[in-house]
Amino acid sequence: MLVHIVDDNDTNLMLFEQIVRRVDAEVTIACYPDPLTALVDCSRQMADLVLLDYMMPGIDGHEYVRRMRAMPGARDVPIVMITAAADRFVRQTALELGVTDFLTKPVDPSEMRVRVTNLLALRRNHLRLRDQNRWLAEEVRHATRAVLEREEELIVRLAKAAEFRDPETGSHIVRMAHYSRLIACGLGLPDDLCQLIFKAAPMHDVGKLGTPDMILLKPGRLDDAEMEVMRRHPVIGHAILSGSSSHLIQLGAEIAITHHEKYDGTGYPYGIAGENIPISGRIVAVADVFDALTSRRPYKPAWEMERARLYVSDNIGLHFDPRCVEVFLAAWPEILDIRSRFADPVEPERSLV
Ligand SMILES: [Fe+2]
Ligand SMILES: [Fe+2]
């Protein structure tokens, strides 16, 4: 604990120091005949108790209190003002400025001792409580982070579960998540939303968990009836993910239900168009289609990057939101980089049996 004694009278300084020392031999005491020096020191290291003379050359006790209370961390430090006379106006103003207590000159040593004892005890309790609150806040932060991490892990595992049944590879969901974040950032969406889109995008096809293998793994083109079944996966994905209180899973549900909508309204399941499609769905549509085109699938080889880039730009305003395509094309070097960083492993033909 640090006690500041501020008084232009040296005799008073010595007397007050002796009194405080007798209260608690452990406290550090700093005596200041000059209030401005005391304020400078206080701004460097906050005192735990201040005994303050009112009448001083330079600045008076009122001005001292005003300047000290404006310092960070000074709000709860007890200040005892020592006044020569029971001047009501001086005390009233001092109270309004934030003085905690008063002592009248000539100071009664036993009264000063009691007040200093009480105020130091109060200050100790206050500091203990503040530390406890900080500790609790830190604990809550840790616990919240742990919950969020577990939530993200579950989502990754859910996406992996879907992937086990789907010919789309794990690298597909990693790449399309990166493309999605790139587009989101290029559109100038807030950073936390870009991150959320990055984490939610891999959930776009979890609805395929509900698609029969004979359709999901069919090597050739799907007929109309099969296509009809395949087109249920956005609704199934939404049913799996909706109703969560987690922002991330809510966004996953939104992406699942909207990622096959098209900007011109010819997509599915609802055929909504333009800005009626949530931005997350419009972003993921570009990222998902582009990566599907450049990936090998049971029914087609992987397209060259240039051919897929042309497809995307040919579909501005048709399949895709023009603004999303614009930022996607502007980020072409980064797209190529993502593509090469997360390339599919070269592996033998996947067995469909
Ligand atoms: Fe899909
Ligand atoms: Fe996909």
UniProtKB/TrEMBL annotation:
MF GO annotations: phosphoric diester hydrolase activity
InterPro entries hit by this protein: CheY-like_superfamily, Cyclic_di-GMP/3'3'-cGAMP_PDE, HD/PDEase_dom, HD_domain, HD_GYP_dom, Sig_transdc_resp-reg_receiver
CDD domains: HDc, REC_RpfG-like
Modified residues (4-aspartylphosphate): D53
Keyword Transmembrane helix attributed: no
Domain Response regulatory: 2-120
Residue ranges of domain HD-GYP in the record: 147-344
SUPFAM superfamilies in the cross-refs: CheY-like, HD-domain/PDEase-like
Keywords for the protein's UniProt record, in alphabetical order: Phosphoprotein
Segments forming domain HD: 169-293
SMART domains: HDc, REC
Keyword Ribosomal protein: no
Any one biological process term the GO annotation gives: phosphorelay signal transduction system
Domain of life according to the entry: Bacteria
Pfam families: HD_5 (PF13487), Response_reg (PF00072)
Protein name: Putative two-component system response regulator
